[in-house]
């Protein structure tokens, strides 16, 4: 159960709109632009003040919703969710938004992140009589909310949030209110926008651009945004902390056209690449990036290194992200299907291959081999983030430490394992500087736990996979 409960909300994207007659359509387009955050399932719940309706399913946004399904979702408010695929499965029942109907009031919620104390809370709630429908940690909040159902809706939520630990961006809806909340450390991105006088919230600002909404501001750590017929109000359910937003949003997850906490993702990635070139210059003939997430960093690297940037690898757009494939064999095939070298560009050349990160090492090893097979004389790998040495408990599926190549191998050992002529990672200080944060690691505004092992929240014993326990202890000591 623990394994099942963990990881059901990996990454994910959330969207909410209130007070717009095309609420479901806006949610559809918003979710479509957040598709990179999750391809396993999608769902929309709409409210028409009297009741709520839901459509959800496994697959891509375009597969789950057709014109006629959307037409039936009439209402003035909607929340939506795209879910990331995980090895553990989860199926239709765990596709979000989760939706509960009662005689008095309905409740829908969608979550991006991971509650690190979900197991503890679930055990307590089950002991008190709650019956869970899903294996998702998100459902814990639904039961906590319902335990306070003698209060007005927004107070039910306000009373429940202090029980939660971990990373969360929630959009929650009743017939009459849309509520957005961000965890006390602001570990996940969540922004507020406006369209035609109506309020929208989304995991990434690219969702505003696609529907023509204007960006207003970020939801702050520990903030609860309440939207209803009286407009938008803000309250804080936790003391205002310095933010600890996930560094991997900048490195890998977010879309290049999004701005996260005020920083544009493409420009930030370019700066990561520039910093990497300063730290780990290598003389070569061409620089190439691994599409799509590393292109910005590769351009930055080439600019600072004063080497030509070339499209040495191309991506087949019709194959999903490799990382999500459940077995190693499928993952390796996935890389091959997804990427091809451009022989004319790399043949006879010394190539710098920039990627945003190495997790298990599958992608880098395959690409180095591909480039060599296509005639590259040297392959130098440059990674625009520091080595990932520790697992993430906040909803990013960087796997357990046993699978993380950098948790038990030195940079030189990794170089040998992936078969590169040279390998360098970006330093932590260099990454912070490139993002635009203070280069001191304490209070830098970022979560760095997968690089340092210093987790910004308490990690409960039963959140930790047995394999990771030793690592956590050694990282702390
Ligand atoms: P690996 O092949 O396991 O080393 O994974 C590294 C590749 O996966 C890189 O090319 C990254 O762009 C990508 N990546 C890094 N972190 C994640 C993640 N949490 N989910 C999906 N893909 C990732
Ligand atoms: Fe992001 Fe890493 Fe922190 Fe997880 S541990 S939230 S992946 S920075």
From TrEMBL:
The EC number(s) this enzyme carries: 2.4.2.14
Protein name as annotated: Amidophosphoribosyltransferase
Function: Catalyzes the formation of phosphoribosylamine from phosphoribosylpyrophosphate (PRPP) and glutamine.
Keywords: 4Fe-4S, Glutamine amidotransferase, Glycosyltransferase, Iron, Iron-sulfur, Magnesium, Metal-binding, Purine biosynthesis, Transferase
InterPro entries, sorted: GATase_2_dom, Ntn_hydrolases_N, PRTase-like, PRTase_dom, PurF, PurF_N
Cofactor-binding details, from the entry: Binds 1 Mg(2+) ion per subunit. Binds 1 [4Fe-4S] cluster per subunit.
Gene field: purF
PROSITE patterns, per database record: GATASE_TYPE_2 (PS51278)
